[in-house]
Amino acid sequence: MGTIPKDMEGGDCFPTRRLRVFACAALICVVALTLRAEVGCPESDPVPRSTNLTPHFETACGKKILFVDGLPFAALAVEIPWDQLLYGKYQETIHAYDYLYPAAEAMGLNALKVPVKWSMVEPQKGVFDFTYIDHAKSLAEKHHLKLVLNWFGHYASGNGNIYLNLTGQVFAPMDIIEDAERYPRAVDADGVPHHAAISYEHDAVIQREIAAFRAFMKHIRDVDSQTHTIIMIQVENEIAVFGADRPGQARRPRCACAAGGAAPPP
Question: Where are the domains of the chain?
Fold first, then answer.
């Protein structure tokens, strides 16, 4: 793999994160080479092909393989950050990670995993904005990369699933964050409501996210059905609602109650 030019180095990603990137890329490279060695196709036709040109998984030569444009695709990818994309300043901070696309190309990667926050897609209730998705797609194509988009909805983080702070870690739309009565918060086993953790059992937030995610996927279909730059979507992220540091309470809220409400008796 190549090195990253000096003029691409910057921000809090370097040098520590660069080491992580190289380690991750090296691991994925080993996996890719192993896949190629174990496909087990006949020598007369060693490269399996698919008539379905859209990105998809398909069984070929006894293996489940990711196909892109009809050919096997081993993704050598790393995930870029999201915390410098600031709520209320999404248009001004949209270029925060532009330098990582040429860096990925210089390293010999063929894909990037790009987080997409629900709050970016739906900045106002029922109003959808796909500027960042289009921007990431354009940069990826310029630098010969495919994209895996990571949807950061109300399953965004294991320590506050709708926001961690109110700048770069805003996952759900702000009207949901501010309205704990309509969109109830999760209550832990001690009866404590968590202002940053929403109940994943409540229909109000689920229906809102369904509408946003449907619009998000429709947009991808509309803009990418020919180019196939976006090869996968990660639908959910971490689901440990209260964080991993709360033994026995990490994954399940006790009830769907608004902030300040009391938990029901056991």
Answer: 84-257
Give pLDDT, residue 156: 84
Q: Tell me the mean pLDDT in the region 194-220.
A: 92
pLDDT score of 4: 41
- DSSP code per residue over 60-109: ETTEEEEEETTEE----EEE---TTS-TT-TTTSTTTTTTHHHHHHHHT-
176 near 141, Cβ under 8 Å?
Answer: no
* Stretch among 28-32, 107-111, 114-118, 122-126 having the lowest mean pLDDT: 28-32
pTM comes to: 0.78
Q: Which class is 84-257 in CATH?
A: alpha beta
Contact 40, 131 (CB under 8 A): no
- C-beta neighbour count of 244 within 10 angstroms: 11
Sign for the pseudo-dihedral over CA of 107, 110, 113, 114:
positive
Averaged pLDDT score across all residues of the chain: 80
What is d(CA 46, CA 58) in angstroms, rounded to the nearest whole number?
16
| Alpha carbons 75 and 55: distance in angstroms, whole number | 12
Please check whether residue 173 is in contact with residue 122, taking contact to mean a CB–CB distance below 8 angstroms: yes
